[in-house]
Write a structure and sequence with these properties.
This protein has three domains: 85 residues; 67 residues; 139 residues, Heat Shock Protein 90. The protein has nine helices and seven strands; from the N terminus they run H-H-E-E-H-H-H-H-H-E-H-E-E-H-E-E. The relative contact order is 0.09.
Length: 352
């Protein structure tokens, strides 16, 4: 039973009790000479006592309607505000100043809860930002050079060798070998070498410098995906909106993208990859979608390092991760990070 219906019933029952109590007191104090007069005298074609009862019930109904509607409105506002908090949005509290003191007290606590959550998210992101700054200051130039050298050597040697082997196996398969079994084995070998290429290129994504090195998140993603197009037989599309974020938030989102693309190359067997980065209602939304083999989320290993790493990074920023995947229908990963207003000195656009 809804609050409004319960209030209507309560108002009618209260009105009936008041009617019964008042008439009982009046009859005891001034007993009528003839009780039949209560039914014989009519008002609006109704017996007087029935008319009085209907008037009382009507007043109780109106009382229950107005009180229930007001209370229901307050509860809807509270529910809407809690939904915003749950989804990562943080708006100011607006409530009816004429509400009951108990309701005002609840609103006051909700307001403090929202402000506390906002401050915690700011603290999380500030901590992540400081970590990113400290990391950039502490990383030595020789470490960065060594990572780049290793990435070049892997690409120039292992990648080219695997590609040459793949082309050789393709030529053998096209040569119509005498043995059907040998042809199947050659085909399997070709698939294994192709998968090795994808594995190696996924590793190259992790060997790239993690920090954006003075680039915005939009610029870093464009560079990463443009390079991916020339190295992987994968159709890649992206839509990136430019907006300002704290440096720590940008670095975490970039690392999340690296991890997600790596998972796609290694496991998805996808032909198309779509990347979306937008800002909506104080939320940074990063969405990565592929048309690969997908997987059953409820059967994913609890210790899956890639997804666990993505969730942990989003949690550090006070954000949420949503994963939608079906076998042979592809996978969509969406990360939503709240962006409370922060001083300009803490944003990525103001850092060197």
């Amino acid at each position: 039973m809804s609050i409004l219906v319960r209030s209507l019933f309560s108002g009618m029952i209260l009105a009936f009790l008041i009617f019964a109590a008042l008439f009982s007191v009046w009859f005891m104090a001034f007993p009528p000479a003839n009780w039949a007069i209560l039914w014989e005298r009519e008002v609006a074609d109704l017996p007087f006592i029935l008319f009085a009862l209907l008037i009382c019930l009507g007043l109780g109904l109106l009382y229950g309607l107005f009180s229930g509607a007001g209370f229901k409105k307050q509860l809807k506002l509270m529910d809407s505000y809690l939904q915003e908090l749950e989804s990562g949005k943080h708006s100011d509290v607006h409530f009816d100043l004429s509400a009951a003191p108990e309701v005002k007290q609840i609103w006051s606590r909700l307001s403090r809860l929202g402000k506390k959550q906002t401050e915690q998210i700011k603290l999380f992101q500030k901590t992540a930002n400081q970590k990113a700054e400290d990391y950039e200051k502490q990383v030595q130039a020789m470490v960065s050079l060594e990572r780049q050298r290793l990435a070049r050597e892997l690409h120039d040697s292992v990648s080219q060798q695997l590609f040459a082997a793949s082309m050789l196996m393709s030529a053998i398969n096209e040569g119509n070998g005498d043995s059907e079994t040998a042809a199947k084995q050659m085909k399997l070998t070709e698939q294994m070498i192709h998968q090795s290429q994808l594995e190696m290129r996924a590793l190259l994504l992790h060997l790239r410098p993690a920090a954006l090195k003075g680039k915005t998140l939009k610029e870093g993603i464009e560079e990463l995906l443009s390079e991916l197009i020339h190295k992987v037989p994968l159709e890649v599309h992206w839509k990136l909106e430019p907006f300002t974020m704290a440096k720590g938030v940008e670095d975490h989102l970039f690392r999340i993208l690296q991890e997600s693309v790596s998972n796609t190359l290694r496991h998805a067997k996808a032909e198309q990859l779509d990347v979306l980065l937008i800002k909506r209602e104080q939320l940074a939304i990063l969405r990565i979608t592929d048309d690969g083999v997908g997987f059953k989320i409820d059967q994913t290993k609890a210790g899956s390092y890639g997804l666990q790493n993505i969730r942990e990074r989003a949690a550090e920023l006070g954000g949420l991760v949503k994963i939608l995947s079906l076998p042979n229908r592809g996978t969509r990963l969406e990360v939503r990070i709240p962006l409370p207003e922060m001083p300009e000195a803490e944003t990525g656009g103001e850092m060197e």
